[in-house]
Amino acid sequence: MNIRSKNDALEVIFDENTGSSKLIMPLVWLRDHCTSEKHYHLPTNQRKSSCVDLLNQSISEKITLDQDGKSIIIDWVDGHQSIFEIGEIVGKGRIRKKTKERGLELWDKETLKEVPRISRTTLSFESFSSSLVKYGIVIIDDVEPTAEATETLCQGLVPVHDTFFGQFWVFSNSGDEPAYEDTAYGNEEIGPHTDGTYFNQTPGIQVFHCLTPATTGGDTVLVDSFRCAQILKKESPQDYETLCTVKIAHHYLEGSPPGSSIHSISLEKPVIQTDSLGNITQIRFNPYDRAPFSCLSSSESGASDVIKFYEAYQKFSRICHDPGNSLTISLRPGSVIFIDNFRVLHSRTAFQGYRKMCGCYLSRDNFMAKARPFLGEQVKQFL
C-alpha cells in the first residue's frame, strides 16, 4: 500500500484480488471515521463527535504506515492519533457499485409457479425474511384460522405499522364489522395496486388471512412491479424516466363533504422511486387513490409533459395488468400471506357470497432491521 498527501486528502493505492486500486480519502472524512475511544463509543456503535469543529481537527501533522503496511496512522495537530486498517476503511467508504438484482428474484407467471410457503411448525425468521426479501411474498401455512392467532403470529414476527384503519383489522362484505370508505370492503373487482400511497410513510408489509372464503371468486392476483418496471425501461426508456421523475399526489378522503373526517394525502412522490445507483427501491402504483393532478399552466411544453406522463402511466398500467405478469392464488383459512408493499402489487377478483378477512400492516423498517443479519453483504447494503 502506498499513500501520498494531497493537501487536504490522501491518495491511497492498495492491492486487491482484481489488481491495484486507488482511492482519494479527504482528511476530514478520515477524522470523522476515527473509531478511537475518544471519538467512538464501541458498545453502542455511535460517534461522539458533535461536528462543531471537525474541519479544524482534520489537519494532519504526520501520516505514516504501520510496519505491516496494512494500516494508516495519522497524527493530528490537536495531539490525537487515529489508526485506520485499510481493508476496514475501504469497506466503509468506497462508493457502492450498481448491482442488477440485489438478492431479489424478479418473477412473472412463468418464472414463479407458486408463492413460497413455510409451515408455522417449522417457521424461523431467517426462512421468513429470506423468502420475503427474495420474492416479495411468502405464505405461512398451518396457522389457526382465527383473527387472534393471526395477530399473535404477526406480532411475533415484526411490529405492526399502525394507521387510522387500526393496528389489526377484521373485515367482510356483510357490514357486520367496522368499514371504511374503501372498495376493499365490497365484493367488486379491484385491480393491481400498492396500499397506502396516500401516506408519506407507506405501509411496508401487507398481511392477509382469509378466514371465510367466498362462495365463488375472490382470488388474489399478485404482480411483481419491479419486473414490470424493468419491462417498461427496456421497451420505453423515456416513459420509465418519466415515472421516475414526475411526482404526483394520492389521497384518502372520508366524510361529507369528502375529507371532513379523514383527509390523508401524500404529495410529490414518483411512481417509480430509485436510489442514486438507479436501483428501484419502491413502486407507488394505485390508479384509484390518485389525487387531482395539479399540473396545468399556460405553457404548451407543460401540456406536452402532462400528456407524456399519462402515456407513461398507461403503458406501465398495461404491463401491470398483463396476465402474463401475474400470479393468481386462492387464499384459504390457515394460510397467511405476507406481501412486500414496496414491490408487489395485489388485486382481487370479484366474488359472490360472504367473505371474511383479517390482516394488518407490518413495519418494513423493523422487518429489514431484523432481516439484514441474515442477508449477504452484497444484498443488505442496498436494502
Automatic annotation (TrEMBL):
<feature type="domain" description="TauD/TfdA-like">
    <location>
        <begin position="125"/>
        <end position="361"/>
    </location>
</feature>
<dbReference type="InterPro" id="IPR012776">
    <property type="entry name" value="Trimethyllysine_dOase"/>
</dbReference>
<keyword id="KW-0408">Iron</keyword>
<dbReference type="GO" id="GO:0005739">
    <property type="term" value="C:mitochondrion"/>
</dbReference>
<dbReference type="GO" id="GO:0005506">
    <property type="term" value="F:iron ion binding"/>
</dbReference>
<keyword id="KW-0560">Oxidoreductase</keyword>
<feature type="domain" description="Gamma-butyrobetaine hydroxylase-like N-terminal">
    <location>
        <begin position="3"/>
        <end position="83"/>
    </location>
</feature>
<comment type="pathway">
    <text>Amine and polyamine biosynthesis; carnitine biosynthesis.</text>
</comment>
<keyword id="KW-0479">Metal-binding</keyword>
<keyword id="KW-0223">Dioxygenase</keyword>
<comment type="function">
    <text>Converts trimethyllysine (TML) into hydroxytrimethyllysine (HTML).</text>
</comment>
<dbReference type="InterPro" id="IPR038492">
    <property type="entry name" value="GBBH-like_N_sf"/>
</dbReference>
<dbReference type="InterPro" id="IPR042098">
    <property type="entry name" value="TauD-like_sf"/>
</dbReference>
<dbReference type="GO" id="GO:0050353">
    <property type="term" value="F:trimethyllysine dioxygenase activity"/>
</dbReference>
<dbReference type="Pfam" id="PF06155">
    <property type="entry name" value="GBBH-like_N"/>
</dbReference>
<dbReference type="InterPro" id="IPR010376">
    <property type="entry name" value="GBBH-like_N"/>
</dbReference>
<dbReference type="InterPro" id="IPR003819">
    <property type="entry name" value="TauD/TfdA-like"/>
</dbReference>
<dbReference type="GO" id="GO:0045329">
    <property type="term" value="P:carnitine biosynthetic process"/>
</dbReference>
<protein>
    <recommendedName>
        <fullName>Trimethyllysine dioxygenase, mitochondrial</fullName>
        <ecNumber>1.14.11.8</ecNumber>
    </recommendedName>
</protein>
<comment type="similarity">
    <text>Belongs to the gamma-BBH/TMLD family.</text>
</comment>
<dbReference type="Pfam" id="PF02668">
    <property type="entry name" value="TauD"/>
</dbReference>
<dbReference type="InterPro" id="IPR050411">
    <property type="entry name" value="AlphaKG_dependent_hydroxylases"/>
</dbReference>
<keyword id="KW-0124">Carnitine biosynthesis</keyword>
